[in-house]
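Field reference: sequence -> structure
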Amino acid sequence: MGVLLGLRPEPVFHYFEEICGIPHTSHHEKALSDYCVRFAKERGYECIQDEMGNVIIIAEATPGYEAVPAVILQGHLDMVGDKAAGCDIDMEREGPRVYVDGDFLRADGTTLGADNGIAVAYMLALLDAKDNSIPHPRLEVVLTVCEEVGLLGASAMDFYPCRARRMINIDSEVEGILTAGCAGGRRSRCHIPVKRILRTGLLCKLELVGLLGGHSGMEIDKGRANGAMLLGRFLMHLKETLSYDLVNFAAGAKENVIPKSGSAVLLIPEEEESHLRKVMEKFLDCMEAEYGKADPDIRLELTVGKTGEFPVLDRVSLGRVLTALNLMPNGVQAMSMDLPGLVETSINMGVAELVEDELIIRQSIRSSVSSAKEMISKKVTLLAEQLGGEVDFQGDYPAWPYARNSKLRDLCVEVFKRQYGHEPKIELMHAGLECGIISGKLEGLDCISFGPSQFDIHTPNEHVSISSAARVWEYLKAILAEK
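Structure field:
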């Protein structure tokens, strides 16, 4: 602790470092949730914590703001836990090791968790202000769990303590952009059955590495390779010239993260090792031509093991796996006809793993049009059923539609112009936000979302701008100070 000591604004970075000291990946937020409850009780705030770990903290208005409409400040407690190869941190038991790199905060070998720890830090800093030094109306601080795995906390949460009908969500990643709507989505889990037989051959481990990956809502349109599908493509290509058997396959970590690596364990005839290496080289030449700018560091690495007898997929099962990995819909499916440049519908194969008797594929489906979300779900189901499998869907959440009239948005624009000297951008986001769910539970809720500039979220290269975080802190305080 104390790594961020001296950074301004001091209370924000103090609490961000406190948060980084507590493990809080999705489904493992209990310690951070309890920390927020203790924080609130020690300061005399009304606090509600539900069985999932969602927290509501209520702070009454400071003197002179009793008549100003209440505001919900909303963010999520969980973070995506991803790490670089060779990193020894157990993210279910350890928080990220944060450090300063010029104007950026980073974590050593893991995701940083500024998505959405910086929002939680803002809220705790506001609530910890002494002698009413930060004026504000009644604040209803809403901190949810399991946002990164399908907005599960917000979906299950009871918002009965909330009287406010204005909400500021602090979960956007580009300073200067006010987000005023987002896509809906759901997660899918495909189960493709496989059978195994015993075969003899040379054991080889093939690893696809060096991909950029990224957030499947924010980077899905960047043309980056999907590690699961690209490795599946190589295996399909290899099958044309080499008779191999598949022992294992694994790629990706989370449904909403574009896989940046993958591995396949093959069984090949001993005399075919050199041929395998030649196919790898030619394939990489093709990938350089296709992904040279979007994903310039794609590599295939081969580790040769021992010769022996191993359980492998039979021919029918291998065909099913290759079909699923190559024909599943993936990436951008449609662009918005109303807003140029906005992705309307997408699907991301975030995880593909071969277990004993099935291939499991986990996907994140997003769309701002509900019928398009249903159509892409039907495509996934149809292909899985044709391969003898089945699909279950979880974590369905609605889109947050753009409101033509929004007093809160108008207020945020005016305050922004005073602070920055120019108009903010008003945009819709393809990534999911909890505004849609909460709007469905609190009738008449007026929402806006913003946040400091963050980069490469959901990857070990995640970083947040220190100066941007400071400016957005001042912006947030200025909004709350309006009467």
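Note: The mean pLDDT is 95.
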